[in-house]
Design a protein that fits this description.
This protein is α/β, with parallel strands linked by helices. It has 2 domains: 262 residues, Rossmann fold (3-Layer(aba) Sandwich), CATH 3.40.50.2000; 187 residues, Glycogen Phosphorylase B (Rossmann fold), CATH 3.40.50. Helices cover 35% and strands 18% of the residues. It has 18 helices and 18 strands. The protein has a 9-stranded mixed beta sheet with strand order 3-4-5-2-1-6-7-11-12, sandwiched between helices. A 6-stranded parallel beta sheet has the order 15-14-13-16-17-18, with helices on both faces. α1 crosses α18, α10 packs parallel to α11 and α10 packs across α16. The longest helix is centred in the first third of the chain and has 15 residues. The chain is elongated. The structure holds adenosine-5'-diphosphate. Adenosine-5'-diphosphate binds next to β13, β14 and α12.
Length: 488
């Protein structure tokens, strides 16, 4: 592969913060290309021209006309810049031009033509890196694809004759696979031979993600443990066979975090700045959080924080099972989240039953999420599975040791507190397994006991605060992976 200075990478993604975001993919798409650029990679980001994206462009120039596909009208390629200054390429097409989210309308119903919307994105990702590219001024050596929405890029490229870009396919969430009726394959102009068990066919349907995993030169996912877990029946979501067959091409690279936005020394949302040398000031943030959420002003009672989607994945039903016992420890609980209506109601009822000890806010609130990280003593993440997870990294940076189920990225980013890890100064939280009410309560008890021992607690906080979760370190791993790819 070419040297780092010359390496050209097209980063194809369906979300990028702050232009369009539904989840962690948007944050990765904003941060990783910037970090790779700093390492000398010539990287451009490719996104669909949703109204939110088109409306945010400060400059734009049409650099190519993109041919249509059987089910898709011709489109334009627009060149612009991201707020970070990185070059941005936008696919402008009438099929993106509607109000609503990237995947769903205002009633949370999937757009009927998501196969076309993201088939086009995938197709353009491939087209720009083939000999006949309509944008000959810049041809990538590598297309970095993200999740099912760009899963067909490696499929289109597989059927190109002559030199072509190499492909990396990153799984951020295996739960979404982009499955559509078989007719989609024709509308997307895929060659008939692609629709087979060794191609994009998945139990009679077309699977974007399966296609990408089948044909990508390299597969990555967002933590080493999750890379292992997705090869098992338990967490492979039906793709474990394919993933274990390609395991020599599969790598787990832990995500980084935005260390500027999440910095207790300068976080504009929090009551009082602090750092590892001024941990006493964290107490002011605890008091402010207790006040804001209607919890008793009780400086010595350990306060558990939760910021999460309220879905089955996050295991918060198990936490709800033990809340009655948790408050007896004693401990307080502050929950911010939204999602499953039944779980929302359950937490609201718990807050009523334990007024002053348990507080719940339903909804999405960026400011409160920072205040919980800063004001809580412990941060609970009992996820059933977790590809990477971000909050456990934020909380270590905020001196709020996380209590996590030992799965996926949680396992890879939190060091369990034990005599050995306290001795070698690596302990940074509490890791437990299996995930059940008895074990969770036992571990809440264990962490509350540690909280009661001032010296242990300070050490745990400081160990977590000094860890490096920045993107700079992660980007080097992606660069090494790019460099190891054979030339096209
Ligand atoms: P996932 O992507 O599975 O939801 P992650 O831990 O990877 O989980 O990332 C979730 C991100 O969204 C975190 O930054 C978290 O703080 C944030 N978040 C989740 N729910 C809320 C909420 N209700 N209000 C504010 N931020 C939230």
């Amino acid at each position: 592969m070419a040297s780092a200075e010359k390496l050209k990478v097209l980063f194809a993604t369906s979300e990028i913060a702050p232009l369009i975001k539904t989840g962690g993919l948007a944050d990765v798409s904003a941060a990783l290309p910037v970090a790779l650029n700093a390492l000398g990679v010539d990287i451009r980001v490719l996104v669909p021209g949703y109204p939110q994206v088109m409306g945010a462009l400060k400059t734009r120039s049409r650099v190519a006309t993109l041919p249509g596909l059987p089910g898709i009208p011709p489109a334009s390629l627009i060149a612009s810049k991201l707020p970070s200054g990185l070059p941005l390429l936008v696919v402008e097409c009438p099929i993106y031009d509607r109000n609503g989210g990237p995947y769903q309308d205002a009633t949370a119903t999937d757009w009927q033509d998501n196969d076309l919307r993201f088939g086009l994105l995938s197709y353009v990702g491939a087209l720009l890196s083939t000999p006949g590219s309509p944008f000959a001024a810049w041809k990538p050596d590598i297309v970095h694809c993200n999740d099912w929405q760009t899963g067909l890029t490696p499929v289109y490229l597989n059927y190109v004759h002559g030199p072509r870009a190499r492909t990396v396919m990153t799984i951020h969430n295996l739960a979404f696979q982009g499955i559509f009726p078989p007719q989609s394959a024709n509308r997307l102009g895929l060659p008939p031979q692609a629709f087979s068990i060794d191609g994009v066919e998945y139990y009679g349907n077309l699977s974007f993600l399966k296609g990408g995993l089948q044909f990508a030169d390299r597969i990555t996912t967002v933590s080493p443990s999750y890379a292992r877990e997705i090869q098992t029946e338990q967490l492979g979501m039906g793709l474990q066979g394919l993933l274990s067959r390609r395991k020599d091409r599969l790598t787990g690279i832990l995500n980084g975090i935005d260390t500027d936005a999440w910095d207790p020394e300068s976080d504009p949302y929090i009551e009082r700045y602090y750092n590892a040398a001024r941990l006493a000031s964290k107490q002011d943030n605890k008091r402010a959080l207790q006040l804001r959420m209607g919890l008793q002003d009780s400086p010595q009672t350990p306060l558990f924080g939760v910021v999460s989607r309220l879905t089955d994945q996050k295991g918060l039903d198990v936490l709800a099972d033990i809340v009655d016992d948790l408050v007896e420890l004693p401990a307080q609980l502050a929950v911010l989240g939204s999602g499953d209506p039944a779980l929302q109601r359950r937490y609201q009822a718990l807050a009523q039953d334990h007024a002053g000890q348990v507080a719940v806010q339903i909804g999405f609130d960026e400011g409160l999420s920072h205040q919980i990280e800063a004001g809580a003593d412990l941060f609970a993440m009992p996820s059933r599975f977790e590809p990477c997870g971000l909050n456990q990294m934020y909380s270590q940076r905020y001196g709020t040791p996380p209590l996590v189920h030992g799965t996926g990225g949680l396992l890879d980013s939190v060091v369990d507190c034990s005599p050995a890890t306290l001795k070698d100064h690596t302990a940074s939280g509490f890791v437990f397994a299996p995930l059940d009410a008895v074990t969770l309560l036992e571990n809440c008890r264990r962490s509350v006991a540690a909280y009661g021992d001032q010296r242990t607690w300070r050490q745990l906080q400081k160990n977590g605060m000094k860890r490096d979760f920045s993107w700079e370190a992660r980007a080097q791993q992606y660069l090494d992976l790019y460099r190891a790819l054979p030339v096209g």
